[in-house]
């Protein structure tokens, strides 16, 4: 570790070097109200292979402050950076990393010509280019009501800026900051205070740093140019940043021609809460720029940088992908740039889905797996990790239907629906959730529950029980995995036009009656006309916005509401449904008698009522 004092005009800057003198140079620039010490853990993680430079910007830490409190414009900040590079004898382009205001400075360095030839790459963390903010707001607002709400949400997050820019009021807020900064870091960021951060000079740094806002923000200081660059740029996007929406942090898409995006479920001070991940990503990016080798993770980051693809570069696993909701979900993720592993017990059906994805210009890979087979699921999870990497999203969609009274449901029928509808979800969550937790970069699990998880039905007791269990498992798992940054969503579709009704086994009736009941149910679902593509859209939105429970069709919303505010009404409706079902069975088969439970395992596989293709697995209703 080597400390220097570097002069930049009237300012003396405190500079610290770490690491090898002969490795690529990485320069870390801090934001407000920090000092260079905020980077200590990241710098140590890089020092074994790189020459790492940190410094306290003017007015912060051990650096001096200008006499003019507004002498913090981007021109002098870039002059300070150039002075640091000259002062420590840096030869050749450096790899720049900036956080918060350090990132805003970095964008000025790579989009202008003031440091032309001196920057090899730039990693931006929680600090968009000033030139990108206005166009992002206009473009986002034009997309419709959701876009307008996102822009308003960003305005709310940025409400502190006008306060800091206001004379006297800004000073009052800055002087109060040391009173709450440590508590906020611990509670909101998950980062414990340690020597150096918060800095012992925080009370002075917070006041001096007001000049950053007053000299560079507002109508009197508009940014110049469009903020475009051809240099390699890596965005590390903390998805829980309290000060910037993900949309704003991704506003460089389409403006940086060589853009790489990495997401992390962390808050604004991600360098403190997840220093190992940040250091690893910086190192991987520098290696890529230096030697040109593109690893699998770098390729995913590059794909994530493409504009217009919400899931670009992400790996998604979908079970039950051969038809219905699984097929629609696979295609929807692929259209949004994801690589998808389409898994199904019917490998041919999954192959058909993958072919449709390829015809649309997407990427999907096929795998045949029975989710009720524990060993097969173990092999599947290992295959995905070793072949493609750890998935970012897993959709546990595979499921079957089972109708008829519980008294007609024998052990084999019960075990079968439980092993697929519930155990399959458990295995997908446990196996892939462990991979996500070990990776330390977050992820999302989506479990297909059902409207039946909310509603009472004497005709679907086994099916409803498994789906209610999936819903509650998802709620519990969401809390368990929150510390890992892994979201969990339960999807409750409703009456959806998928093949599941035609392949549902119905107990307690003659095969001919069951056939007619299936046909009538399928026709009713077709008349309802709610397509699985609508469910797929809801799944993508749920992942993007980290929703816990998502009823999809209107009847699912009604069922959820009734289960909460009037559960007794649900039981009354169920009694009417039972009587209507009894009358329907009498019309279909006046002479029918309850079938005795004497099925063989082979009949269970095919469906005791003779239902063809009972092993056809797709989602829920």
Please count the helical segments: 23
Sheet with the most strands, sense and barrel status: 8 strands, mixed
End-to-end C-alpha gap: 62 Å
Could you estimate the helical fraction of the residues in percent? Answer: 40-55%
Low-confidence stretches: 592-614
The shape is elongated
Order of strands in the sheet with most strands: 1-2-4-3-5-6-7-8
Which structural class matches the secondary elements? Answer: alpha/beta
Mean pLDDT: 91
- Cα Rg: 29 Å
SS strand fraction? 15-25%
Describe the overall structure:
The chain is 47% helix and 16% strand. With 621 residues, it is of the alpha/beta class. The strands form 3 sheets. The protein has an 8-stranded mixed sheet, sandwiched between helices. The chain has a 7-stranded parallel sheet with strand order 11-10-9-12-14-15-17, with helices on both faces. A two-stranded parallel sheet has the order 13-16. The protein is elongated. It starts with a strand and ends in a 15-residue tail after the last helix. About 4% of the residues have low confidence.
Describe the SSE topology.
Elements: E1 2-8, E2 11-19, E3 25-29, H1 40-46, E4 51-55, H2 74-87, E5 94-99, H3 101-111, E6 119-125, H4 130-141, H5 145-157, H6 160-165, H7 169-189, H8 202-208, H9 210-216, E7 229-238, H10 246-249, E8 256-264, H11 270-273, H12 275-291, H13 296-304, E9 315-319, H14 324-335, E10 339-344, H15 347-359, E11 363-368, H16 374-387, E12 393-396, E13 402-403, H17 411-439, E14 443-448, H18 461-481, E15 486-492, E16 505-506, H19 511-528, H20 532-545, E17 549-551, H21 554-565, H22 567-588, H23 601-606
Parallel strand pairs: 3-4, 3-5, 5-6, 6-7, 7-8, 9-10, 9-12, 10-11, 12-14, 13-16, 14-15, 15-17
Antiparallel strand pairs: 1-2, 2-4
Helix pairs in contact: 1-12, 4-5, 7-8, 14-15, 14-20, 16-17, 17-18, 21-22
